[in-house]
């Protein structure tokens, strides 16, 4: 029987396990990437393993999140990242060079390669045929140490694209449509593999928009074939030698198929505060807009921004509407500049920001109170923009630019003729010299640690009997932003666990931290899809620092589950969801950890004698990791 693309990549990288959906597999990882907000911790963890050099073919450390150097913390982190990269053989991308996923796509991603990154939008590289997955920083550190990356063998869903995009519909509308169809829980345990005639009509930057935001489906990853479009892209980037064809066999099989007719799509938006609350742009006609933001790792390519400028050209923003544009890389910015497109952009009244994540991670650009902000980003969780009561809508660059100019939602039927599809300019400037490649001789390299780089904490193994209390009860769809908010002040503390832990659940319950500090340990009780959102391991590390020993939920998001395991927190699922209502904050619970078995059911007892059944989907290894007090204890610190 033939293989699909996912199976082809997995089978050529399989170290342990069988390719049967759900069973644990260990994969050889070719490439890793980190960004600064998760990277400092990942490199501290790598250092703790005592390995002389990274063992991957390529590892890159990007600085794109905390680029506002207000005070010593962020520059100290960047200095540590630069020097630790030089010491251990990692390529370093300085602040302002660009957003990790855009840069990786342009410069390093390869068809058929495996890539894990300590950022949940690592699947962006699936746009040119990499098997690219978001992971916790510790998993990335282990991959850099040469260890296989363990995941449950995913189911592979085919997304069959037919037809061709028309009018104002874009690649963003394809993924928004899929999110509306399948919801933010629809991809758990799955890889979305794109195929069909419609695929041929999409360029690599368009494909990368789709694989990027596939992360919002909760998917393991998404990927496209490597074909003529891929070859064209790699050639344009001066990397023709990295091309190899990678397509599914004609008789490949899939666990499921979703068909999307591109010709039927229209401009869409995701409404506040979830990426799957998708409706048509025209259905919101009349809603006033106070801000638009174009950029982020989803929509900051040359074609996205040139299209934006062509829409803005010879127009001016209405008073009171703020439009921010962040190019995905200096290469994108240089291409725009060399074609004389910066002038028209500035003349429209738009603001040109640095080539970084910027407003996407709350580094400036917050909307006005109760403002409506139309953003080309991938997430619109409540408060992520930095303004708690702002309403963030997710849309394509075309839609964001049009609505900013109008100052309100309008019907795309009134927008006139859309700009033609943009590919690449004849000459593409290189920015390769801006990356800092590790020196041949690292003996003279000294790792510099400023006061913001705090040594790793050691955690003890789990006791045989856990006696604890529910210290916080939360509802469904709790995101990692709820657990640990983003924003300049907080993300600057990513290398300082005691300090950042002060913000755990700070926007959900301001007394949570003090309750934890006044007790030996604690349990968090959650609803469906607990921990969805980013890969930030601090959302597990912070609670662990405060003494959280278990989360008991109705269901759990993939990367957060992995992070909980890595830091020795038990991820337990209620066997009977109705038991959620029987427990409240302050409920006492005990559990014999010796009664836990991989994939088994255990019984917890409340202080008033109620029996609560909890399940786990842990493998033998994962359970051993948790009982040892986390992955670093399990693999052994040096
Ligand atoms: Fe950065 Fe936002 Fe992407 S924080 S990596 S641009 S999701």
Structure description:
With 638 residues, the chain is α/β, with parallel strands linked by helices. The chain has 3 domains: 5-264, 2-Layer Sandwich (Aconitase, domain 3); 268-412, Aconitase, domain 3, CATH 3.30.499.10; 465-635, Aconitase, domain 4 (Alpha-Beta Barrel), CATH 3.20.19. The strands form 6 sheets. Strands 20-21-22-23-26-25-24 form a 7-stranded mixed barrel. It has a 5-stranded parallel beta sheet with strand order 5-4-3-6-7, covered by helices on one side. Strands 17-16-15-18-19 form a 5-stranded parallel beta sheet, with helices on one face. Strand 4, helix 3 (73-88) and strand 5 (91-93) form a beta-alpha-beta unit. Helix 2 (36-48) crosses helix 3 and helix 6 packs parallel to helix 7 (204-213). The model has no long low-confidence stretch (mean pLDDT 95). Residues 64-65, 99-101, 119, 121, 296-297, 357, 360-361, 378 line the site of FE3-S4 cluster (F3S).
List the helices and strands and how they pair.
Elements: H1 5-13, E1 14-16, E2 24-27, E3 31-35, H2 36-48, E4 58-62, H3 73-88, E5 91-93, H4 100-107, E6 114-117, E7 131-134, H5 137-144, E8 149-152, E9 155-162, H6 171-182, E10 190-195, H7 204-213, E11 221-223, H8 228-236, E12 256-261, E13 268-270, E14 278-280, E15 291-294, H9 302-312, E16 322-325, H10 330-338, H11 342-347, E17 351-352, E18 372-375, E19 391-394, H12 397-406, E20 465-473, H13 480-483, H14 488-491, H15 497-500, H16 512-517, E21 522-525, H17 538-546, E22 548-553, H18 558-566, E23 570-574, E24 588-592, E25 601-606, E26 611-615, H19 620-628, H20 631-635
Parallel strand pairs: 3-4, 3-6, 4-5, 6-7, 9-10, 9-12, 10-11, 15-16, 15-18, 16-17, 18-19, 20-21, 21-22, 22-23
Antiparallel strand pairs: 1-2, 2-8, 13-14, 20-24, 23-26, 24-25, 25-26
The protein binds FE3-S4 cluster.
């Amino acid at each position: 029987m033939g293989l699909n693309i996912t199976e082809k990549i997995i089978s050529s990288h399989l170290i342990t396990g069988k390719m049967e959906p759900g069973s644990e597999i260990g994969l050889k990882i070719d490439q890793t990437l980190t960004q600064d907000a998760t990277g400092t911790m990942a490199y501290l963890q790598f250092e703790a393993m005592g390995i002389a050099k990274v063992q991957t073919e390529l590892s890159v450390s990007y600085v794109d999140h905390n680029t506002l150097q207000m005070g010593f913390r962020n520059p100290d982190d960047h200095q540590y990242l630069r020097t630790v990269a030089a010491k251990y053989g990692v390529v370093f991308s300085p602040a302002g060079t660009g957003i990790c996923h855009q840069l990786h796509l342009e410069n390093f991603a390869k068809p058929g390669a495996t890539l894990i990154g300590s950022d949940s939008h690592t699947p962006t590289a699936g746009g040119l045929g990499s098997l690219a997955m978001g992971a916790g920083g510790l998993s990335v550190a282990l991959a850099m140490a040469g260890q296989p990356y363990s995941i449950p063998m995913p189911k592979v869903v085919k997304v069959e694209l037919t037809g061709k995009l028309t009018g104002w519909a874009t690649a963003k509308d394809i993924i928004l449509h899929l999110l509306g169809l399948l919801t933010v829980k629809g991809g758990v345990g799955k890889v979305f593999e794109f195929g069909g005639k419609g695929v041929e009509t999409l360029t690599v930057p368009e494909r990368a928009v789709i694989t990027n935001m596939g992360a919002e489906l909760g998917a393991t990853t998404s990927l496209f074939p490597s074909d003529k479009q891929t070859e064209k892209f790699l050639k344009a980037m001066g990397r023709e030698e990295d091309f190899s064809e990678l397509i599914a066999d004609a008789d490949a099989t899939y666990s499921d198929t979703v068909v999307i007719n591109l010709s039927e799509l229209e401009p869409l938006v995701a409404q506040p505060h979830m990426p799957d609350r998708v409706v048509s742009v025209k259905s919101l006609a009349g809603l006033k807009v106070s801000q638009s933001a174009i950029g982020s790792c989803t929509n900051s390519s040359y074609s996205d921004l040139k299209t934006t400028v062509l829409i803005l050209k010879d127009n001016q923003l209405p008073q009171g509407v703020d439009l921010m544009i962040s190019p995905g890389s200096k290469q994108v910015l240089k291409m725009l500049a060399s074609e004389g497109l910066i002038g028209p952009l500035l003349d429209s009244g738009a603001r040109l920001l640095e080539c970084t994540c910027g407003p996407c991670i709350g580094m400036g650009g917050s909307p006005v109170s109760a403002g409506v902000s139309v953003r080309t980003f991938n997430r619109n969780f409540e408060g992520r923009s930095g303004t708690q009561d702002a309403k963030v809508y997710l849309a394509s660059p075309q839609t964001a630019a049009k609505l900013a100019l109008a100052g309100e939602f309008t019907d795309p039927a009134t927008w006139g003729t859309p700009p033609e599809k943009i590919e690449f300019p004849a000459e593409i400037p290189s920015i390769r010299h801006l990356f800092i490649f590790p020196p041949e001789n690292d003996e003279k390299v000294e790792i510099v640690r400023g006061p913001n780089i705090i040594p790793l904490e050691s955690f003890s193994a789990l006791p045989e009997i856990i006696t604890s209390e529910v210290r916080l009860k939360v509802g469904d769809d709790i995101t990692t932003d709820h657990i640990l908010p983003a924003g300049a002040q907080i993300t600057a503390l990513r290398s300082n666990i005691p300090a950042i832990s002060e913000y755990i659940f700070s926007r959900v319950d301001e007394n949570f931290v003090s309750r934890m500090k006044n007790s030996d340990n604690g349990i968090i009780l959650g609803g469906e899809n607990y921990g969805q959102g980013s890969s930030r391991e601090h959302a597990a590390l912070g609670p662990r620092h405060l003494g959280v020993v278990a989360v008991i939920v109705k269901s759990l998001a993939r990367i957060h589950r992995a992070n909980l395991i890595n830091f020795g927190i038990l991820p337990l699922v209620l066997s009977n969801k109705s038991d959620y209502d029987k427990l409240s904050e302050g409920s006492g619970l005990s559990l014999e950890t010796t009664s836990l078995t991989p994939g088994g059911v255990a019984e917890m007892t409340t202080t008033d004698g109620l029996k609560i059944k909890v399940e786990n989907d842990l493998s033998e290894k994962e359970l051993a990791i948790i009982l040892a007090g986390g992955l670093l204890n399990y693999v052994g610190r040096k």
